[in-house]
Protein backbone atom coordinates (compact mmCIF):
# COMPACT_ATOMS: atom_id res chain seq x y z
CA UNK A 1 0.00 0.00 0.00
CA UNK A 2 2.76 2.40 0.97
CA UNK A 3 4.65 1.46 -2.16
CA UNK A 4 1.71 2.44 -4.38
CA UNK A 5 1.41 5.78 -2.59
CA UNK A 6 5.15 6.39 -2.97
CA UNK A 7 5.01 5.49 -6.67
CA UNK A 8 2.10 7.87 -7.18
CA UNK A 9 3.99 10.70 -5.46
CA UNK A 10 7.18 10.06 -7.44
CA UNK A 11 5.41 9.83 -10.79
CA UNK A 12 3.40 13.01 -10.07
CA UNK A 13 6.52 14.88 -9.04
CA UNK A 14 8.54 13.79 -12.06
CA UNK A 15 5.67 14.62 -14.45
CA UNK A 16 5.23 18.09 -12.91
CA UNK A 17 8.98 18.74 -13.13
CA UNK A 18 8.91 17.68 -16.78
CA UNK A 19 5.92 19.91 -17.52
CA UNK A 20 7.59 22.90 -15.88
CA UNK A 21 10.73 22.52 -17.95
CA UNK A 22 8.65 21.95 -21.08
CA UNK A 23 6.95 25.26 -20.39
CA UNK A 24 10.36 26.87 -19.98
CA UNK A 25 11.41 25.48 -23.36
CA UNK A 26 8.30 25.98 -25.45
CA UNK A 27 6.53 29.18 -24.38
CA UNK A 28 6.98 32.32 -26.45
CA UNK A 29 7.61 35.09 -23.98
CA UNK A 30 9.75 35.57 -20.87
CA UNK A 31 6.73 36.50 -18.77
CA UNK A 32 4.99 33.32 -19.93
CA UNK A 33 8.13 31.26 -19.39
CA UNK A 34 8.33 32.47 -15.80
CA UNK A 35 5.15 30.56 -14.95
CA UNK A 36 6.43 27.06 -15.70
CA UNK A 37 9.49 26.69 -13.45
CA UNK A 38 8.19 28.79 -10.57
CA UNK A 39 4.93 26.92 -10.14
CA UNK A 40 4.97 23.48 -11.73
CA UNK A 41 8.60 22.62 -11.00
CA UNK A 42 8.39 23.77 -7.38
CA UNK A 43 5.31 21.64 -6.77
CA UNK A 44 6.92 18.65 -8.51
CA UNK A 45 10.13 18.85 -6.49
CA UNK A 46 8.08 19.29 -3.30
CA UNK A 47 6.15 16.11 -4.09
CA UNK A 48 9.41 14.22 -4.79
CA UNK A 49 10.91 15.44 -1.51
CA UNK A 50 7.83 14.38 0.46
CA UNK A 51 8.00 10.95 -1.20
CA UNK A 52 11.65 10.69 -0.13
CA UNK A 53 10.75 11.73 3.44
CA UNK A 54 8.03 9.06 3.65
CA UNK A 55 10.38 6.43 2.19
CA UNK A 56 13.21 7.07 4.65
CA UNK A 57 10.81 7.43 7.60
CA UNK A 58 9.31 4.03 6.81
CA UNK A 59 12.68 2.37 6.25
CA UNK A 60 14.71 3.74 9.15
CA UNK A 61 13.80 4.05 12.79
CA UNK A 62 13.18 7.77 13.27
CA UNK A 63 11.38 10.38 11.23
CA UNK A 64 13.66 12.01 8.66
CA UNK A 65 13.12 15.75 8.63
CA UNK A 66 15.83 16.86 6.17
CA UNK A 67 13.49 16.74 3.18
CA UNK A 68 10.79 18.71 4.96
CA UNK A 69 13.44 21.36 5.60
CA UNK A 70 14.42 21.49 1.90
CA UNK A 71 10.74 21.58 0.88
CA UNK A 72 10.01 24.50 3.20
CA UNK A 73 13.09 26.33 1.95
CA UNK A 74 12.17 25.82 -1.71
CA UNK A 75 8.57 26.89 -1.15
CA UNK A 76 9.73 30.06 0.58
CA UNK A 77 12.44 31.00 -1.91
CA UNK A 78 10.69 30.23 -5.23
CA UNK A 79 8.30 33.24 -5.12
CA UNK A 80 11.12 35.54 -4.00
CA UNK A 81 13.34 34.58 -6.94
CA UNK A 82 10.37 34.78 -9.35
CA UNK A 83 9.60 38.29 -8.11
CA UNK A 84 13.21 39.37 -8.55
CA UNK A 85 13.37 37.86 -12.05
CA UNK A 86 10.16 39.66 -13.07
CA UNK A 87 11.57 42.92 -11.69
CA UNK A 88 14.79 42.45 -13.66
CA UNK A 89 12.83 41.68 -16.86
CA UNK A 90 10.69 44.78 -16.41
CA UNK A 91 13.82 46.81 -15.75
CA UNK A 92 15.35 45.58 -19.02
CA UNK A 93 12.09 46.28 -20.94
CA UNK A 94 11.75 42.78 -22.34
CA UNK A 95 9.16 42.29 -25.07
CA UNK A 96 5.80 40.92 -24.00
CA UNK A 97 3.20 39.36 -26.26
CA UNK A 98 0.37 40.24 -23.92
CA UNK A 99 -1.89 43.16 -24.73
CA UNK A 100 -1.43 46.30 -22.71
CA UNK A 101 -4.47 47.00 -20.53
CA UNK A 102 -4.38 50.73 -21.36
CA UNK A 103 -5.05 49.96 -25.03
CA UNK A 104 -8.31 48.21 -24.23
CA UNK A 105 -9.31 51.17 -22.05
CA UNK A 106 -8.56 53.48 -24.94
CA UNK A 107 -10.61 51.39 -27.34
CA UNK A 108 -13.54 51.32 -24.92
CA UNK A 109 -13.45 55.04 -24.27
CA UNK A 110 -12.83 55.78 -27.94
CA UNK A 111 -16.15 54.16 -28.73
CA UNK A 112 -17.98 56.47 -26.32
CA UNK A 113 -15.86 59.56 -25.59
CA UNK A 114 -12.54 59.29 -27.35
CA UNK A 115 -10.55 61.41 -24.92
CA UNK A 116 -9.74 59.69 -21.62
CA UNK A 117 -7.42 56.98 -22.91
CA UNK A 118 -5.46 59.40 -25.04
CA UNK A 119 -5.21 61.77 -22.09
CA UNK A 120 -3.65 58.99 -20.02
CA UNK A 121 -1.22 58.28 -22.83
CA UNK A 122 -0.31 61.94 -23.30
CA UNK A 123 0.05 62.78 -19.63
CA UNK A 124 2.94 60.43 -19.02
CA UNK A 125 5.54 61.96 -21.38
CA UNK A 126 4.65 65.50 -20.35
CA UNK A 127 5.02 64.68 -16.65
CA UNK A 128 8.35 63.02 -17.32
CA UNK A 129 9.39 66.09 -19.29
CA UNK A 130 8.53 68.37 -16.40
CA UNK A 131 10.50 66.15 -14.03
CA UNK A 132 13.61 66.06 -16.14
CA UNK A 133 14.53 69.79 -16.13
CA UNK A 134 14.02 70.01 -12.34
CA UNK A 135 16.56 67.27 -11.83
CA UNK A 136 19.03 68.99 -14.12
CA UNK A 137 18.50 72.35 -12.38
CA UNK A 138 18.96 71.09 -8.82
CA UNK A 139 22.70 70.29 -8.94
CA UNK B 1 7.55 -1.74 -8.67
CA UNK B 2 9.30 1.15 -6.98
CA UNK B 3 12.44 0.50 -9.00
CA UNK B 4 10.68 0.74 -12.37
CA UNK B 5 8.81 3.87 -11.24
CA UNK B 6 12.10 5.45 -10.19
CA UNK B 7 13.62 4.58 -13.56
CA UNK B 8 10.73 6.30 -15.38
CA UNK B 9 10.98 9.31 -13.07
CA UNK B 10 14.74 9.54 -13.61
CA UNK B 11 14.13 9.62 -17.36
CA UNK B 12 11.53 12.40 -17.02
CA UNK B 13 13.73 14.51 -14.74
CA UNK B 14 16.75 14.00 -17.00
CA UNK B 15 14.66 15.23 -19.96
CA UNK B 16 13.68 18.26 -17.84
CA UNK B 17 17.37 18.95 -17.11
CA UNK B 18 18.16 18.73 -20.85
CA UNK B 19 15.34 21.14 -21.74
CA UNK B 20 16.34 23.74 -19.18
CA UNK B 21 19.97 23.40 -20.31
CA UNK B 22 18.83 24.08 -23.87
CA UNK B 23 17.09 27.23 -22.65
CA UNK B 24 20.27 28.19 -20.78
CA UNK B 25 22.26 27.94 -24.02
CA UNK B 26 19.67 29.52 -26.32
CA UNK B 27 17.91 32.04 -24.10
CA UNK B 28 17.54 35.32 -25.96
CA UNK B 29 17.91 37.57 -22.92
CA UNK B 30 19.73 37.54 -19.60
CA UNK B 31 16.66 36.91 -17.36
CA UNK B 32 15.93 33.84 -19.51
CA UNK B 33 19.34 32.42 -18.71
CA UNK B 34 18.97 33.19 -15.01
CA UNK B 35 15.57 31.48 -14.98
CA UNK B 36 17.10 28.48 -16.77
CA UNK B 37 19.85 28.26 -14.12
CA UNK B 38 17.18 28.44 -11.40
CA UNK B 39 15.25 25.59 -13.03
CA UNK B 40 18.47 23.64 -13.50
CA UNK B 41 19.36 23.61 -9.82
CA UNK B 42 15.81 22.73 -8.78
CA UNK B 43 15.89 19.84 -11.28
CA UNK B 44 19.23 18.71 -9.91
CA UNK B 45 17.70 18.58 -6.41
CA UNK B 46 14.95 16.34 -7.80
CA UNK B 47 17.59 14.15 -9.47
CA UNK B 48 19.55 13.84 -6.21
CA UNK B 49 16.41 12.88 -4.28
CA UNK B 50 15.55 10.18 -6.81
CA UNK B 51 19.09 8.81 -6.64
CA UNK B 52 18.89 8.83 -2.83
CA UNK B 53 15.71 6.71 -2.91
CA UNK B 54 17.17 4.42 -5.58
CA UNK B 55 20.45 3.78 -3.77
CA UNK B 56 18.86 3.82 -0.33
CA UNK B 57 21.46 6.16 1.10
CA UNK B 58 20.70 9.21 3.24
CA UNK B 59 23.89 11.03 2.25
CA UNK B 60 22.26 13.12 -0.47
CA UNK B 61 20.19 15.42 1.73
CA UNK B 62 23.05 17.65 2.79
CA UNK B 63 24.12 18.05 -0.84
CA UNK B 64 20.56 18.92 -1.83
CA UNK B 65 20.25 21.45 1.00
CA UNK B 66 23.54 23.08 0.01
CA UNK B 67 22.48 23.23 -3.65
CA UNK B 68 19.17 24.86 -2.66
CA UNK B 69 20.88 27.49 -0.48
CA UNK B 70 23.64 28.35 -2.95
CA UNK B 71 21.28 28.34 -5.94
CA UNK B 72 18.91 30.79 -4.29
CA UNK B 73 21.78 33.09 -3.34
CA UNK B 74 23.12 32.92 -6.90
CA UNK B 75 19.74 33.78 -8.41
CA UNK B 76 19.29 36.74 -6.06
CA UNK B 77 22.81 38.02 -6.76
CA UNK B 78 22.39 37.78 -10.55
CA UNK B 79 19.00 39.54 -10.42
CA UNK B 80 20.46 42.28 -8.23
CA UNK B 81 23.28 42.66 -10.75
CA UNK B 82 20.77 43.10 -13.57
CA UNK B 83 18.65 45.52 -11.54
CA UNK B 84 21.35 47.75 -10.08
CA UNK B 85 24.50 47.03 -12.07
CA UNK B 86 26.16 46.19 -8.78
CA UNK B 87 25.70 43.46 -6.18
CA UNK B 88 27.01 44.98 -2.95
CA UNK B 89 26.83 48.74 -2.85
TrEMBL record, chain B:
Primary location class: membrane
PANTHER family found in the cross-reference section: NA(+)/H(+) ANTIPORTER SUBUNIT F1, NA(+)_H(+) ANTIPORTER SUBUNIT F
Listed transmembrane segments: 6-25, 34-53, 59-83
Localization (cell): Cell membrane
Chloroplast recorded as keyword: no
NCBIfam families named among the record's database cross-references: PRK06161.1
Membrane topology: Multi-pass membrane protein
Assigned keywords, A-Z: Antiport, Cell membrane, Ion transport, Membrane, Transmembrane, Transmembrane helix, Transport
Entry annotated with the keyword Transmembrane helix: yes
GO molecular function: sodium:proton antiporter activity
Top-level taxon in the UniProt lineage: Bacteria
Family: Belongs to the CPA3 antiporters (TC 2.A.63) subunit F family.
Protein name as annotated: K+/H+ antiporter subunit F
Any GO CC annotation of this UniProt entry: plasma membrane
Amino acid sequence: MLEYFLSFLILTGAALTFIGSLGLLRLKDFYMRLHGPTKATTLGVGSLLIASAIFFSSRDAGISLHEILITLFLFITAPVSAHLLAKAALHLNLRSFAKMPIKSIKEKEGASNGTIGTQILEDNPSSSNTHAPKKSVQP
Amino acid sequence: MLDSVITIALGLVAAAVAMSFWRLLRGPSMPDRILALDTLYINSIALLMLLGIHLGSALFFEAALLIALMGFIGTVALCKYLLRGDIIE
